[in-house]
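Why run this: before we spend reagent on co-expression, it is cheaper to look at a predicted model of the complex and decide which construct boundaries make sense. The entries below are exactly what would go into the expression plan.
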Amino acid sequence: MQPVATTFFFYFLSGITLISGILVITRKNAVHSALALILGLLAQAGLYLMLYAPFVAGVQIILYAGGIMVLFLFVIMLVNLERAQKEEQFNKQWLVGLLAAVALGGLLMTVYLKGSTLFTEHIAQPVENSNTQQIGVMLYGNYMFAFEIASLLLLVAIIGAVVMAKKRI
Amino acid sequence: MAPITTLHYLVVAAALFILGVIGVLTRRNVVIVLMSIELILNAVNLNLVAFSRMWGLHGQVFAIFVITDAAAEAAVGLGILIAFFRNKETVNVDEVDLLKW
Amino acid sequence: MLDYITSYLSSNTTPGQAGNVFWALVYIMVVFGGVSVAVMAMNWLERKALAHFQIRLGPMRVGPHGLLQPIADAIKLLTKEDIVPSEADKFVFWLAPLIILCASFTVYIVVPFGPTHAITDLNIGILFMLGVSSLSVLGVVMAGWASNSHYPLIGALRSSAQMISYEVAMGMAVVSAILMTSLNADGTGTLSMIGIVQAQQAQHTWFIFKFFPLGFIAFGIFAIAMVAETNRAPFDLPEAESELTAGFHTEYSGLRWSLFMLGEYAAMIAVSSIAVTLWLGGWMRPFPNTLTGDTWDLVFSLIPGFLFLGLALIAFIGVARMPKHPYFRIQTIGLAGFGAVLGLIGLVLFAPPVRDRIQDIFWFCAKVAVFMYLYIWYRATFPRYRFDQLMRVGWKVLLPVSIGVLILTAIIGVLV
Amino acid sequence: MGDQITKDPASFISHLELDQPDKTFLDSNELIINMGPQHPATHGVLRVILKLDGEKVLGTECVIGYLHRGVEKIAEHRTYTMFNPYVDRMDYVAAVSNGLGYCEAVEKLLNVQAPPRANYIRVILTELNRLASHQLWLGTHALDIGAMTPLFYTFRDREEILKIFEKYCGARLTTHAFRIGGCLYETYDGFEQDVKKFIDFLPPKIDEYEELLTTNRIWVERTKGVGKISASDCIALGVTGPVLRASGVKWDLRKAQPYAAYSDFDFDIPIGQSGDTYDRYLVRMEEMRQSLRIIRQAVERIPEGPIMAKVPKVMKPPVGEIYHSIEAPKGELGYFIVSDGSTQPYRIRVRPPSFVNLQALDLMVRGQLVADVIAVIGTLDIVLGEVDR
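The model came back. Tokens follow.
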């Protein structure tokens, strides 16, 4: 399946991603932020599809948009944020933070512009039809230890979350 | 228009990363700080997947690990947030300047 | 241009794979129109069947035997005042039903009604379906939160917890079916919906009977989890009428409410079609391996036509039994017309070219219809679970069992 | 003004001494929700303010009075005869029982004895009414728990009882079947056949209800261990009827202080052990069977004779006071009547079973889940007309 109108979709999806990113960090209401983030995640899944990574796109939708973000929304509903909305949204050192971030961005841009020769267009032959299979083989082959550690990490996270959120320990 | 190269994706990812950093550094609301961290992780993911188009599938595998990581981070982070809110009735990061209460 | 249109007809793939935009659009129209009609029919059927379970008649006034009731309902809902609570978050309130609707309709892109009768065939098909249908939980959460009212909020919390929990067991059951697809010579499984059915075809069995009882248990887990996923009785806690009035859509009315309704029914059909694809052989007719030969092929291909003729016959019996009173004249004529349409469809289905093309779709839809009936049956029979019991069933029964089934399937798959 | 209350249920609940095991610990998700007065599962206009921790109930407050019609006050301005129809409007589901209790109380005050045939008719109709009341309870209770279908089955069968009522006295719900001193109407032709037919008709139907529910896993899980109340708590709160019997106390006024003709019949009092919702369900189901037994005996042995005792046209009971109670379907229904010797009662106080049983709600649901509140309201079998009077 050849992607159609690649250029258009790239700008469209990355535009959505960036705009929703801006919305995430500027909205007063945390729910709106979360919704913007979900939109961004979905647009990003589209970008993954354009990069011949359908499995990652699927995982992104299931895990991120369907799982993690629901967790976020769940928590936002549990903790009543009405008071937080009326307060000052940005902290006192916001200017410093902003400057630091912009400086970092400038750094990255410089690297990209100066070093654009580093990123020569080397296209690996994407085998889309067996993408999932190859990822599976890699996960259980090359990266088996990492995979196991990730599962351990999740276990720790589950226990940690339960302990943390429990009312009376 | 010029064809879309990897560099395009990298620029988008960098912009997303910067947005995340700004969110983490400037917002007071913990929930939004956590979401900004998600933004950062996503920017990384986008980078990884973009590179995987150049150098094979390793990047995608790593993206999956990052997503796993994000799930763990979100679970623990939100757990801390709930415990925090229960005790302090606030979700502002700059009010958590005590190590105990 | 004409070439572009006709060239697809001779190809042997789905329009999405063929990259044929025109036919893809046609398919999209047909599928979405079909699903909308199916939702309306389901609406009527549910009220009617439920009524007969409960010794009542159900809708009888609008059209013969209430056949036009869904249309009347639709008109009523469309013209009803659209109330938005004053303290609600307007934008999110507006967005929530749309998300549910989009999520449950987008899923149909990969539903395989036949070997080529799908809008497209993604090679992450099942992942896509599960992922997109899991997005509808967002709509539920948003609706509950945006209403700014306690009942919807509790409903939304319940619902999101329920949907996420059951998704886990559901996913495990799905994985065990996907494992079965890889039990062929070269050991490559598939996530594509069409590929899964083809794997069943190649292995000469429906996956429900594979490694009996493993396939059956996995199917059972999925069948339970999908009821919970779609918030239907006996897992309809999010909209438990007697507890939370209507759950997350308490504050909705008119058009928006009808979107929820549409989304719910579309999701029911969607998850049923996942079940049919994974375990019940998708578009394959019953007994494709034991009852082989041209005669049996002919017999099975005639069934759709006879089914419609039978329905027409029932309609005509209804006509004959209508009271002979001028008051019922229009109803009688309507019912006769309905019967005539059904009979005509039946006759068209006998024509060999139609017969051959429609078979796959018919068997797929017939299998889904069985699930739809089961949904209604559950609703008539079961009381509602309590929230903690629901969670217990999800996490302590379904999840361990489904993991066990998955492991056993893997082991047997390696050994065999 | 009403809006003010609705807007802030917290102001209502503020005086509630809710158990706070850990006062320093702030609960992040404490929620106060208002269930009713317009709520499908509160059986009318009961308003329950729930204090929730997530799904757990921390406390409840019942707000009643939305259906208050001042029945007791009205009585002070009506003659004894005139007040008789009013009592039907209290527990409109079991109007016949209400009438029986009132008539017997006034008869006791007047020192009149209803003739035996009247007593038998009274027993038959009252027991039929008990069946109707229990059927309505079962249907709505099951509906609350999510089983839709039993509702329609019970209503189908309840219809047969109402038909008998209609044939007997012309009314289906608020029957006003009895008069002080006996019955006004002689049984119609074929009454006995109708009743006998009904007795044979109902047992398979009761089995049908039980088939749907008794062994249904979900039903058992939803009701077992839910809304438990101990016998001592029941007695302390004055809870009566099937709720008390399900806790293991064998107390039924039909046996304990027989009235009408109940001493003539042979029947059992079903009791439960654990006092949970499931036991109450079983007790009521068994009560339905026992009622059928009583009706069968009564119909077979119904004596001939007058149906009305000699009662003065203008009733002037002697000065005094009387308390008479009967076993209504929902529990002990008592009438306390004070007479000042005039044609009108000086004061009538009704002891309605629903009102008293409703007190137990808070005790039964505390610490349980929201869904259990619904189950418990259903199992208490309250009728708001009787709670509010």
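Residues 58-88 of chain B form the longest helix (31 residues). The radius of gyration of chain B is 17 Å. Bring this page to Monday's planning discussion.
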